[in-house]
Amino acid sequence: MTHGWRPPRGRVVCVGESMAALAPEPLQSLERADSLRVSVAGAESNVAMYLADHGVPVAWLSAVGDDAWGRRVRDAVAAAGVDVSRVRTDPDRPTGLLVKDPGADGTRVHYYRRGSAASALGPDLLDEETIRSAALAHFTGITPALSASCGELVTRALTGPYTVSFDVNHRPALWPDASAATVLRDLADRADIVFVGLDEAQRLWGQDLKATDVRELLGRPRILVVKDGAYAATAFSDEGVCTVPALRTTVVEPVGAGDAFAAGFLAGLLRGVAMGRALRLGHITAVSALGVTGDHGPLPDAGRIERLLGLPEQEWLTLGSARRG
């Protein structure tokens, strides 16, 4: 069967900041917590780790401080099978830190990343052979919010010789002015593959937007994936429009699920599978993140993944989340 455009197979490089993360354990508010669990948090390294789980050769490019947090971050990402050999160590700036504060209305995240090692990254990073020889490079909208030099890094990266994947990943706390809507739309519309949540698209570009409206706004990407939370994900491409419902699951914490979805979807594309199967693999991978308090959870075994991917459409639909009433 002939499918539409797919990115070339080869090494993927994910570029962006990762931080040490502290979260109460057991899950409760910071005000009542007696202990905190240390993990690693970073959208791009999350994607890299899940790609490695799927057997995709992948490297992570970033910078960390010459401190215990930085060594912990680097070691954790490497332990997942990601190449971290070109991650820079900054002797003058610290590794970023975030603290999660779970509550009845969701998890609030407090960032301590101003002046971090990764915020000093710039377009010279693109001179690294690791990224110049990549088949696909993955970025997010978090990086351009960190500093002017990080913004220039992402802008320049969009003209590189590799396929560019871009997750809008709007973090309002990182955009104190009103520039996010314009900057993120411009960057997204210049990428080859784009991920955006319908809710974040509505916050950025209009509260009444539907998935098809987002495609009107972002018409250039070869593939645009609009994620509608726990309901479905829709891909727009030269193959047409494909919507696949999300899987039912018990949500421990939603943080990291979008990154997991992106990794699963990209892994599917790199395998050359049909669009619907790539979306399915995105949903399956997202469930791995939804079931843990950290950003990176274990994938189902290969046999279960293949069984889920191979289910007839009607059976898959019965597994999917209930639609809005």
List keywords for this structure.
single chain, transferase, 14 strands, Carb_kinase_PfkB-like, 325 residues, four-stranded mixed sheet, 11 helices, globular, alpha/beta, UDP-N-acetylmuramoyl-L-alanine:D-glutamate ligase, kinase activity, Sugar kinase
Describe this structure in words.
The protein is α/β, with parallel strands linked by helices. The chain has a single domain (about 10-320), classed as 3-Layer(aba) Sandwich (UDP-N-acetylmuramoyl-L-alanine:D-glutamate ligase). The chain has 11 helices and 14 strands. The strands form 3 sheets. Strands 4-1-9-10-11-12-13-14 form an 8-stranded mixed sheet, sandwiched between helices. Strands 3-2-7-8 form a 4-stranded mixed sheet. A two-stranded parallel ribbon has the order 5-6. The longest helix has 16 residues, at about 275-290. The mean pLDDT is about 90. Pfam families: PfkB. GO terms for molecular function: kinase activity.
